[in-house]
Structure formats: C-alpha cells, structure tokens
Amino acid sequence: MRRITLALAVIVFAACTSGGTRQSTPPQDRADVAGSEAFLAALGQVSNYHHLADVVLSDGDTEAAMKYLALALEVQFPADADVEVVDAVQLDTRARLAKLDLGAGRLDDALKIVDDGIAQAHGDSFFLGNLYTVAGQVHDARGEKRAAIDMFDKSIQCEKRVQAKVLKEKTP
After folding, report:
1. Parent domain of 32
2. Nearest Cα to 37, choosing from 60, 16, 66, 58?
3. pLDDT truncated to tens, each residue of the chain (172 aa)?
4. Helical H runs in 75-123?
5. How many domains does the chain have?
6. What is the domain-level CATH number for residue 127?
7. Residue 89: CB partners within 8 Å, gap ≥ 6?
8. CA-to-CA distance for 71 and 67, rounded, in angstroms?
C-alpha cells in the first residue's frame, strides 16, 4: 500500500511541477492532464477501497473488507495508464484479498485470486513475487507441499530478476 501511495505522490508531484509554466489551455481540456486526472481518480478509488477495508477490518468485519477489495479490482484505469503501475495496484490488491480468503479458510477462492493475478501479470515485479508467496501459502494450507515449494521458488526467482534489473539499471 505504501508503494501505491508513493506512486500516487510522485505522479501528483510531477503533474503539479511539470514544465513550471502556466498553460493557456484550461487544464481540463489538456489531454495530458485529462489522462492524469482519470488515472489519479482510478488510483484514488483503489486507495479508498483499501482504506474502507482497513476500517471494517478494525471492527472484525472480514466479509465487508473482502467486498471492498473485490470492488478495488473492478476499478477501470485509462487505456493509456502505465501498465507497471496498474499491475502493481492490482497484484497488491489480489494478494491482500487472497490473504483474507486464506485466513477465512476459503482456500479455493484464495487460489483462484492468486492464479488469476499471476496469469494477468505483465512481467516481473515485487508485487508479482509477493503474489507467488501468497500462492505458496495457499498451497501449503491446502497440504500441497510440492506446489507450495514451487510457488516460493518462483517468488524467489522473480525477486532475483527484479533485483538484478534494478541493479543493472543503476550501474553506470
């Protein structure tokens, strides 16, 4: 969730500081701002669904929290939204929802949530690695030790690839 908030803050900061000059075209009529507004609105919706889930979970209402997280997965992002950011938001939400299903003993539901997320992912990321971890936890709870080990191994390999990519990008 912190990464989503950070991404949101960076995007808002960039939108507010880009160019440093006033535009003669009203902001709502500019394609770059309109796209940003739609993207920020979608991020805001997802963030608020997570906040709602937090609130109801603090009262012990897991069912309501799961409904809010399911609604977060239905939020539509603009077609031109950054795929990596949308992936991060959706994979993070899926991991949280699957953990709630796991805690409620709904192992089949949890497995479907993680399997769907893994199938829809657009590439390696911390969030995909985390989803593999949750998949491993679900398989372990189902007594499927070999599948659990495979998912934990996939998580480690995914995280290694992410780390190698980041280190390579930072090396001159």
Report:
1. 2-170
2. 16
3. 444 444 443 333 333 323 333 344 444 444 454 458 899 999 999 999 999 999 999 999 999 999 999 999 999 999 888 999 999 999 999 999 999 999 999 999 999 999 999 999 999 999 999 999 999 999 999 999 999 999 999 999 999 999 999 888 887 7
4. 83-103, 107-120
5. 1
6. 1.25.40.10
7. 4, 43, 46, 77
8. 6
**How many H-runs (helices) and E-runs (strands) does the chain carry?**
7, 0
How many Å apart are CA 9 and CA 89, to the nearest integer?
14
For the entire predicted model, the pTM comes to 0.78
Residues in the chain: 172
Taking a C-beta distance cutoff of 8 angstroms, is the pair 160, 141 a contact?
no
